């Protein structure tokens, strides 16, 4: 049993909901990250400001420099811590020994964090773990009344306060994010509904099948029209053949010739017009056919000649197929010679019998076959000239030759003193 396919509109809806959810989530996390960094920076600046206010108190600085005999440093530091809400205000000497700390039992001990940068004259702010936990800290050098560095002032604000503030801000932003998510989901649902209405509830594969079927109801219509036209032409051609057959059977030869002239639009053949030797070409079909083509060539301003090596002393037993092959090759050669740049324009036909096999070679004085077409010249629709209805002659020629067990080839694409050379081999067509 084939798996049930989820409707396209539902797939699109779920995809859009997932995308909107992802975007809102990423936006919310990015906002939280930016707020967190901003709050930490604010707390660090605040810690530095408090530390600087203590460091400029010369009473504290002088007391640390003298070893704080009157114990004023702890009292002043605690007063600042209480007033500012800091987690701690720690004052040390240059060796990192505490003179002020919120836990009195740690006075006189060395601080747990590095103090060398500060006593070297550098201000430091960071988020750091210490003996009182994670805090945003600001550290500055402690100065006495002469401006000399005598120690360090470190002020920290508990990180819990930072994150409490962050969560309070995110609680305000959360409803906005949820509202944006709901709005995106609603918009996606509306879009999916509109799409379903516009496509009449059809799935993409169903739409593709409809398009394919439509392109097929058009090709079929074209074929039907073509079939009707061919049927009409077949009846018309049959009627003309019947009329011609009746004229010949009644021995009305002159009338038959005039009738053929009216159908083909070519001059009537008269004795002495052609120069095809009877002894070289004894088959009546090829002789008559090439005689007619010679007159057609003259109308195009092209000379159609038989090669001196032409020699057919037997009769053609497949005249329709043979004249189809020879006729198409000659017609193409006449057109190429007419349009080519070489003058005089001429086409040479060479017919040679080899037992029951007929070999046909047609050479013209045209411009030849371009290199880009040499591999595809026998395909239907491929032609050296532009225009509708082109590219059928050589395709039909090869089909006719192969139906007899033979073939047609382009043996020379042209160049030098001649154009293209086409050769056909037609087995079992001579008596």
Automatic annotation (TrEMBL):
Residue stretches making up the Histidine kinase domain: 232-430
The EC number(s) given in the record are: 2.7.13.3
Q: How does it sit in the membrane?
A: Multi-pass membrane protein
Under which main EC class is this enzyme filed? transferase
Q: What is its main location?
A: membrane
What is this protein's name?
A: histidine kinase
Q: Which UniProt keywords apply?
A: ATP-binding, Cell membrane, Kinase, Membrane, Nucleotide-binding, Phosphoprotein, Transferase, Transmembrane, Transmembrane helix, Two-component regulatory system
**Species:** Pendulispora rubella
GO MF, any single term? ATP binding
Where does this protein reside within or beyond the cell? Cell membrane
Q: Name one Pfam family in it.
A: sCache_3_2
Catalyzed reaction equations: ATP + protein L-histidine = ADP + protein N-phospho-L-histidine
Q: Which InterPro entries match?
A: HATPase_C_sf, HATPase_dom, His_kinase_dom, sCache_3, Sensor-like_sf, Sig_transdc_His_kin-like_C, Sig_transdc_His_kin_SpoOB, SPOB_a
Q: What are the transmembrane regions?
A: 12-35, 172-192
């Amino acid at each position: 049993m084939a798996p049930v396919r989820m409707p396209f509109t539902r797939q699109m809806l779920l995809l859009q909901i997932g995308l909107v959810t992802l975007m809102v989530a990423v936006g919310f996390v990015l906002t939280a990250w930016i707020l967190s960094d901003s709050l930490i920076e604010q707390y660090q600046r605040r810690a530095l400001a408090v530390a600087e206010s203590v460091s400029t108190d010369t009473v504290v600085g002088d007391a640390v420099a003298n070893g704080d005999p009157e114990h004023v440093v702890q009292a002043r530091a605690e007063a600042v811590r209480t007033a500012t809400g800091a987690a701690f205000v720690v004052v040390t000497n240059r060796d990192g020994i505490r003179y002020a700390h919120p836990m009195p039992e740690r006075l006189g001990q060395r601080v747990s964090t590095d103090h060398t940068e500060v006593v070297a004259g550098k201000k430091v702010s960071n988020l750091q773990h210490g003996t009182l936990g994670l805090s945003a800290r600001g550290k500055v050098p402690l100065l006495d009344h002469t401006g000399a560095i005598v120690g360090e002032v470190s002020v920290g604000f508990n990180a819990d306060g930072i994150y409490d503030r962050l969560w309070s801000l995110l609680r305000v932003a959360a409803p906005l994010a949820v509202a944006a998510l709901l709005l995106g989901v609603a918009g996606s649902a509306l879009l999916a509904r509109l799409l379903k209405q516009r496509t009449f509830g059809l799935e993409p594969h169903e739409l593709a099948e409809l398009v394919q079927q439509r392109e097929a109801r058009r090709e079929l219509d074209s074929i039907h029209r073509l079939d009707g036209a061919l049927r009409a032409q077949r009846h018309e051609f049959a009627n003309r053949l019947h009329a011609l057959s009746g004229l010949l059977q009644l021995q009305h030869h002159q009338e038959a010739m005039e009738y053929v002239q009216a159908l083909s639009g070519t001059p009537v053949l008269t004795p002495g017009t052609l120069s095809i030797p009877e002894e070289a070409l004894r088959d009546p079909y090829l002789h008559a056919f090439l005689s007619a083509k010679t007159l057609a060539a003259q109308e195009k301003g092209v000379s159609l000649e038989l090669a001196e090596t032409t020699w057919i002393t037997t009769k053609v037993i497949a005249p329709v197929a043979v004249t189809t092959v020879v006729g198409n090759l000659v017609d193409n050669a006449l057109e190429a010679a007419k349009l080519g740049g070489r003058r005089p324009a001429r086409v040479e036909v060479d017919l040679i019998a080899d037992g029951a096999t007929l070999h046909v070679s047609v050479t013209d004085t045209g411009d030849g076959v371009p290199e880009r077409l040499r591999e595809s010249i026998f395909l239907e629709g491929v032609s050296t000239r532009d225009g509708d209805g082109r590219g059928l002659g050589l395709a039909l020629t090869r089909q006719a030759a192969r139906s007899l067990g033979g073939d047609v080839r382009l043996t020379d694409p042209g160049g030098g003193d001649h154009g293209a050379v086409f050769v056909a081999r037609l087995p079992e067509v001579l008596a």
